Structures are given as C-alpha cells and as structure tokens.
Automatic annotation (TrEMBL):
The keyword Protease does not apply. One of its GO terms (cellular component) is cytosol. GO terms for molecular function: oxidoreductase activity. Gene3D superfamilies: NADP-dependent oxidoreductase domain. The keyword Oxidoreductase applies. Residues 15-317 form the NADP-dependent oxidoreductase domain. This is Oxidoreductase.
Amino acid sequence: MQYTRLGNTGLIVSRLAFGSMTFGSGEGAFGSIYKVDQAGADELVASALDAGVNFFNTADAYANGQSELMLGKALGERRQDVAIATKVGNRMGEALLDQGLSRQHILASVQGSLRRLGTDYIDVYLVHRLDPYTPLEETLEALNYVVRQGMVRYIGFSNWPTWLAAKAVGLQREHHWAQFRVAEMYYSLIGRDLEHEMIPFAQDAGIGILVWSPLAGGFLSGKYTRENPGGGGGRLTGFDIIPFDREHGYDVVEKLRQIGERHNASPAQIALSWLLSRRAITSVLVGASKISQLNENLGAAELHLGTDELAELDKLTEPTAIYPNWFNSAIYDAPVRAALEKQG
C-alpha cells in the first residue's frame, strides 16, 4: 500500500481509501448500489485492513445511515487504527430542517454520525453538497465549532465549485476558523474537469483531493462495451449520473485493455494506477460489493505504469482547455520559462 499526508496536515492516510457506499439496502436507483449486508461489510473491511488501507469513507445519507452504522460495527476495535471520513448535507428525513448546511443541521448531524459510527470523534467531516439557502459564514462557523469541540479532527468539502471553495478558505483564514484540508471530488480518465481550476487551487491552498467514482460509475472496469452497453446489468443500468462521451469512453477502455495486457492487469487497475500517478491526488476511493472486486482494485497500489504508458493515457483523455486557461497558457514569457526550466 502507498501512503501520504492528507493535504497540509500530519494525518497519514492510505492512497487507496475504502468507500462504504455499498453498505446497506435500498430500493429504486439506489438498489443497484446499496446491497452489502453486515456479514459482507465485515469481510470487506477486514480485507481492506489486511491490505494496509487505513482510510475509510462514508456519509450519513448512504442508505439512510445504514452505511455509517455498518462501517462502525465492521471496524470494531480497529477504529483507533484508521481515519474515518463521513459527510453531511443531504436529506435525512421528511422535515424541512433535516437537510442542508445550516448550523442546526450540522450540529444535529455530527451527533447522529458519531452515534452510528460508534465513536467519539470523526477524523474527516465533509460537507456533501452546496446549500444555496444557508449563508456560507454560518456553515463555516458551525464546522469550526465541531472541530473546537473535539467532535471532528479535520474538515473538507465535496462537489463544490472552485470559486466557492476559494471564498470559503478566505473566510476561514480571516476569522481564524478551522481550514478545509480535503476535497472529495469526482475525477477519472474520462472526467478530467478538475484539472481546469480545482486541482491548481487545492495544491495552492494545501487541500488534499480524495477521488470519488474513479472508474466513472464502473464504466472503466471494462464491463461496458459497444457490444454490451448494459454491462450485464451493472450499476450504470440503475444509477447513471456521470455525463461523458460513451463512444470516446469505449476507446479509452480499449486502451486500458491494451496497457493491461502488458502488466497482466485489468482495465480497472490501469485506470486506478493512472490516478495514483497524479501528484495532486491524495487518495482514491475504491468501493466493492464482493471480495474479488475489492482485491482487484487494491492491486492497483502495486502497479506502476511506465512514463510512455502514462503519456498515452494523458494524450487520449486530455480535456479541452477552457477560457481563460488556454489564453494564459499561450502568453507565458518564453525566455523566462526556458531559463527557469533549466534550473529544474
């Protein structure tokens, strides 16, 4: 297993983190995700621990709290050996108050998460989404409060735009509040939007990036093909929220297969290894509903792609530059750049 610091902190976490979104049961679209019972959860968590994983991720809204409850039970006495991240913001009940990022909901939710996880502190507490109805200062002050009270060690955000995260960091510094240290964001070979703004901002601000859905909902596992677009009833047939060009995606999967043949590795392992090669990425979330799937994903930590192979994948999936990025890239002073590059 590979390890690194979580952003600009002293918290050492595994670069492959375990996501427990599959824990619990549900109906409808989520029925294709929530399908692991407690016995299965115990087995998956034990296998992850044996592989050296020490970073576990969940959310209060996953299976309406079942995921937190099951993860806490599965960790048991090993809780002190690991870092747990959970999230707040999505709806947890029918009442209007039972959602969002208000002080009221954050304080109530952190208590609920602590209870379900069976712990007296949360290592990483993330706001799960935007809340356009709550002042940003209220959210940030509430997060600072739960840190100062010892209920939470570090805070972060998920699915926020860069401008809002930057504004939040400015307010946190101005008021000497607890700082964001991690961002849980979607990033994959067929979804590299993060590179436009978020990654440069996070690196500058000392914020580690935790990647969710590194296989684009399972598409990059190779299960989905032009001949079998449904993947034999895979997750994407019931829960498909990530937009991407399917035809281009099939080309990317084919390249993953080609590179995988050189390493005796699966397309999923190649896709995960590419993510681990990105310096800005702290940890990559891997979830599973069965041991074989988890062990395959964890195997990516031992896989090292060649420089030429990484370059192949970079070129094939390079995102189109957006304004003003393409303009600024074109007007750097060439003599200064050349002089500085000579110095390393």
